[in-house]
Structures are given as C-alpha cells and as structure tokens.
Amino acid sequence: MVGKSTASKRKPGSAGDTRRESPAEAPPAETTAAVAAAVRDARKGQQRLLNIFSDAFAAVLAQDSFSTILQEIKQALYHRDFATAFGSEDYLEAYAARWSPTRALCYAAVFRGIKSHLDGILVDERETAQPHDGTQEEPGREDCTESDASAPSGRLRMLSFGGCAAEHVAFGSYLREAACHGTLTLVDSAPWSHTETLIQQQLTSPPPLSKYASAAARANNKAFLRASQLQFTFSQADALSLDRARLLELVGTQPLVVTLMFTLNELYTDGGIGKTTKFLRLLGEVLPDATLLLVVDSPGSYSEAAVGKEKKKYPMQWLLNHTLLGTETTGYTWEGLESEDSIWFRLPEGLDYPIQLENMRYQMHLYRIHKPKS
Length: 374
What we know:
40% of the residues lie in helices and 17% in strands.
C-alpha cells in the first residue's frame, strides 16, 4: 500500500527492494549507481502521475463523505448494479480518485513494455488528418509539425473501450516518455465526460503551486504535456451496441492501438458470450491493417465466463483466443504477439498519495491484425 502514513512493504525485485548481494556477487559500483538512478527517475515519474490524480480530485479526496461514497460504490459493484456505481459525477470522481491511480501506473508500465510494437504504428504527422470526430486544435496551440527539435514527432492513436481516467493518464505518460503526439478516444457507457475533462486539464496545465512558491519554482512549473500533444474525445456508448458504421467512425483508416482494460471479462459476463464474440468479430472487420489489440484484465479464476445451461466456466483468455486465433475469418487474421497469464504490479516505497493504494495483479495479451493489401 502507499499513502500519507503507510508505505508498501518491500518486495524482492521491486523499486523499493534494498536487499544486498554478497560481496562475490556485487555488481560494479557504476552499474549499481546507474540502477539506483533509474529507480529514482521511475519513482519520480510515478509520483507525477499520482499528483495528477491528487490535484484533479483534491476536493473529492478531502470530503468528509469520501469514505461513505466509496462504500456505496463498493456495495453497488458487489451487486453488479453498474447503473448506480457509475451513474453520477460524484461517484465517478470518487472512483477515479480511489481506484484509477494504481491502474494508471500499471498501464503506463504495460505501454512501456510494448513500446517496440507501438513504435510500429506511429503515424507520420504530415499524413495525419483532423480527428475523426471533427474536433479542432484550439487557436494559438503549438502545431504538431513545428520545427522545434524538442517537439514530439509522430502520432499514436488509441481507442479504449471501457476506458476512463486510468487509461487517459497512462496514455499521457507514454506520450511524454516517447516524445510523440497522441489522439485518444474513450468509449464507456458511464458519463465520464466531466471527470475526463478534469484529467485532461491536469495533464496539459502547469500543476498548482503554493502561494509561497519561489520565482524559480514558478518559472520551472511546466505542464506534464504540451497543450497540443494529446487530443482526446469521450463517447458515451455501450460497446456491444455499436454498429458497423459507428465502429468505422471510431477506428478511422490508420493503424491504432485498441484497448480493453479490465473490460473484456465484464463484457463476457454481463453482455453475454454471444454478443461479445459478435463485437470482437465486427471489430476485426473494421480495424485497419497492423492495428494492435491490447487486453488487460484480472488473472485466473477472476476472469471466467459461464457458457450454456450447465454454466460451464471458461477462462476469458481461452474465449478470446478462440475468437481471434481459433476461428476462421474472411479478410483478416490475428497474430498473438505477447501473452502473460499473471503479473504483479507492485508500488514502490516513497510514493505519496492522500489515501492508501494497493498493489495489483493482472493478465495481459497483445495481438496484431493482418489484412491483405488492396
């Protein structure tokens, strides 16, 4: 856990691990120093992501009713009453403040781990049209093709089904590290628009400073991202209700990364295997060649769906592979790129957040779609 007064227990191999090697196994001093510096830099980056959440939801976190609201959300989720759990802005902001920070850090690590694949779908800025929804850059913002050598180059497009604050912040983190522009479309049945606007403001505006901050601190106070670096759109819709025409609008004509983060198992469980399979196949039909599909979800028995009258349970990964890799399709094929059944994401010591956060465990699967050249 991480919080104001509680730090996470040190785990072997974690950023907070301080185990010493025996003298015979000790690495060179310069290697040790380099590793220590990398750990410090990683922790600093993670802290900046947590600050985005604590700044965006400072009023929510400070409310006396915050704990009560969290219990009400938990109760609604326990009864699978999603209309209540995600039905109001107060609940959505509380949910984002409580559960999204750890996931954002985790997703940022996932994106970092698949960077070589993401690099392969960067779009040349000169070939990038306006976003599919018709939104424009605000007047006066930096042009994506500016000549500044430090300016980001290339554009990465991401479409997140079930996406909200965690995906938003993690994607922004990746754009910053990779020095590229990004276009993000979040699709969810809950009304996340206001919450995501708060997140976008925190990502693209200098963080708040104390009125006692020095002139030097004010001069160096920069936004996490350039104002033009991340364009985002939120669309309130049930993924399983989207028809072919709407999916085509969402995915566009250039390769992108599509994410289902802690979403696919809910689609299987609540929407049904038939509808979810239909959605995945329709998605395959409309996606541009070379598009990546990234699935992250709970591991093991936490991600199972019942089939048939006998309610026989099948792992989510088996159902996904059966749909993408085990069924003949016309016009496209899927390639499995990476797959992990169970990974721990552990929070390092030293991170600061107003409330306690926990480590998390997840499974991850990455696919690429192939379509014949026209």
